[in-house]
From TrEMBL:
Cofactor: chloride; Ca(2+)
Organism per entry: Geospiza fortis
Entry similarity comment: Belongs to the glycosyl hydrolase 13 family.
Pfam families (alphabetical): Alpha-amylase (PF00128), Alpha-amylase_C (PF02806)
The name this protein goes by in its record: Alpha-amylase
Span of the signal peptide: 1-16
Record's keyword terms, sorted: Calcium, Carbohydrate metabolism, Chloride, Disulfide bond, Glycosidase, Hydrolase, Metal-binding, Signal
Amino acid sequence: MKILLLLLAAAGLCWGQYNPNTVPKRTSIVHLFEWRWQDIAEECERYLAPNGFGGVQVSPPNENIVITNPNRPWWERYQPISYKICTRSGNEEQFKDMVKRCNNVGVRIYVDAVVNHMCGAAGGSGTHSTCGSYFNTGTEDFPAVPYSGWDFNDGKCHTGSGEIENYGDIYQVRDCRLSSLLDLALEKDYVRSTIAEYMNRLIDIGVAGFRIDAAKHMWPGDIKAFLDKLHNLNTQWFSEGTKPFIYQEVIDLGTEPIKGSEYFGNGRVTEFKYGAKLGTVLRKWDGEKMAYLKNWGEGWGFMPSDRALVFVDNHDNQRGHGAGGASILTFWDARLYKMAVGFMLAHPYGFTRVMSSFRWPRYFQNGKDVNDWYGPPSNADGSTKAVTINADTTCGNDWVCEHRWRQIRNMVIFRNVVDGEPFSNWWDNGSNQVAFGRGNKGFIIFNNDNWNMSVDVQTGLPAGTYCDVISGQKENNKCTGKQVVVSGDGKANFQINTDAEDPFIAIHVDAKL
Ligand code: QV4
Ligand code: CA
């Protein structure tokens, strides 16, 4: 078996879909949720490339329905009308310009592919779509693709409402409508080919891979069928024979019959347990403590590391959509959030995605955010606002830009520096003070207890003075924040007060004086 795997790996054929196709030593991607293509192009050049980000997950680029009640919700983009590249983020020309400019600075683009369905059944008929293409949900006509009634599941779904009523029934979940979205008949070769044609257009433009939206609602074999039709990546930026990176959105929290593992043959899978559990631990819910993170990863019942796409929050669960949301940490809980993202980026498990959000007027009524639908910052005519950059490098216009927060950006760099190094030198106090290293390249320590910490621990790092990359960083051979002295035996003293602005410290060999 080992030998067979080695042979296949050497042939470089079957396994490409697990590899993010980032340039070497760029180990994370960022989801620039709802950003315009022109802003992403700029961000690649001015920020992402210089700071070692590997790529960007972009919002769905294909034409979607325009919803005015509520007023232009973010989720209208998950209701396709055609596969024309034409949305509030920009047109095809702008998309191509973005892909080219990002690739030219070594930052990859991953497309959110919404191919399980078209728009909602109550969409109506007309040209209220982002490119003005006509559609009719009554007759299930989408002439701009074209799809017609024959291309939808309907007959295959056996629930009274035509909706998914029970997630315990794997047939309903795949063949019925997800919140009324017209469900495509993916067993048809015409539908598979049409989807593959759309994805191939994107591949030829130069994208590096895809998030497969609502993968749980498609049969793994149907996904395989359209993936098998995909081109290799554009050789202007990728080596001959490179397959697109695939990560499938399957929410498997362990409570339903559909398992993420059913999708491993197609590519990676989103590990939703990751953010839900990490949030629970950092919030100290359910008797959890950071000391239990010693065997984080597969030890917690997560999928194999080389199949996992991990994140602290995503665009759904940061606002109560999807599943497993209560414990999720987001930018709204900034202090714990930075710790969670720091922990994720320091830990070797999984391929990591950082979230970058927009602010909305969050307002809870009876425990539910009634403004969870709010779309991106926009002008009166509905167009999306530009991402402006303030003098202090943060973003304006209500773009949160978590990826630009010093602590998060510096941990993205940390992960690149420690890439390939083993998890090492775990230490904990049996409670919420923990630390671990990555071989002899980096070390991180947390105090999430409500008492001060002062400890001498083994870092595994060479002797010297290091800059903490959480409170500051190394600039002109000086530390702008705290300093840590590692002695000849690899030990260092760390003091973190419980009321510290950020109760964690991280050091690595590229931030050594
Ligand atoms: C509603 C009712 C229906 C009713 C219909 C009548 O729910 O029962 O029949 O009105 O018109 C929106 C609305 C939803 C509305 C639906 C259809 O919220 O109320 O139906 O549109 O008009 C996003 C949002 C959804 C949104 C959808 C389409 O989260 O709220 O639905 O976009 O606009 C499960 C899945 C998982 C999914 C997750 C949210 O297993 O796959 O739910 N996650 C992905 C995306 C997510 C997206 C979709 C899937 C759908 O990450 O952002 O849903 O593409 O866990
Ligand atoms: Ca389906």
